[in-house]
């Protein structure tokens, strides 16, 4: 019998704790402080640059992300896991999608955004963190990554990270969400991905020897490096924006606004890449390719 993967379980617990801490830090700084609100507001204010040329594409992206599409995707992912004979995986991925999206909606209502005189035009809208659209996109991408065969995960991870980033950036371009809203949504999905991973491990604890399949190291490393590079660019843009916070937003130059908006977009894309990389790194162990003990039992039964 396979020894229970305690190290992997601990990794999920530690990573989930880091992501919870990250969410708290993002919410406290960008929602509760005037400094953070100013940085977010400048980034959001730059969304008008080139908006006329991409408005149609942005609307198309956002219109595909809805409650109906979420339900359809959840049903399809659960069905795909079941036809592969992975009952624990079906329940785990549904837990991931439902848990992440319910958590986002609850947090959106529980978190209070104080009026600090920063963004008066949107004061009446209240809190917008975390982003619901970004949660839907990222949770579906991660769930799909888990249920697909191991040989497809690398390519799907690349495309999925790009898709989650595009949806997140689209909400910024449409003026629906600030960069911190999207990053917070990805952190919520990350926490639930770890919870789902633990659930699947526990449900499969009686498995015998397993074949873990390919680890998709190239895709994992590529996504991690791209994510870190994008976050470094976002940090640089954040530093540049921080230098002009004393200037009213409507007096900032086009270049300053573009730098802030671009930094927000890089932060979103970088966070999406790291989220997918963190799941891809352990997906081959969470969802083994084959269970040798089960195959052996079937062979013995057939011989008998």
From TrEMBL:
Top-level taxonomic group: Bacteria
SMART domains: acidPPc
Pfam families per the UniProt record, alphabetical: PAP2
Sorted UniProt keywords: Membrane, Transmembrane, Transmembrane helix
SUPFAM superfamilies: Acid phosphatase/Vanadium-dependent haloperoxidase (SSF48317)
Keyword set includes Transmembrane helix: yes
TM annotation in the entry: 60-82, 89-111, 131-148, 155-176, 182-203, 215-238, 258-281
Domain Phosphatidic acid phosphatase type 2/haloperoxidase residues, every copy: 91-197
Keyword rRNA-binding in record: no
Family annotation (InterPro entries): PAP2/HPO, PAP2/HPO_sf
Protein's name in the database: PAP2 superfamily protein
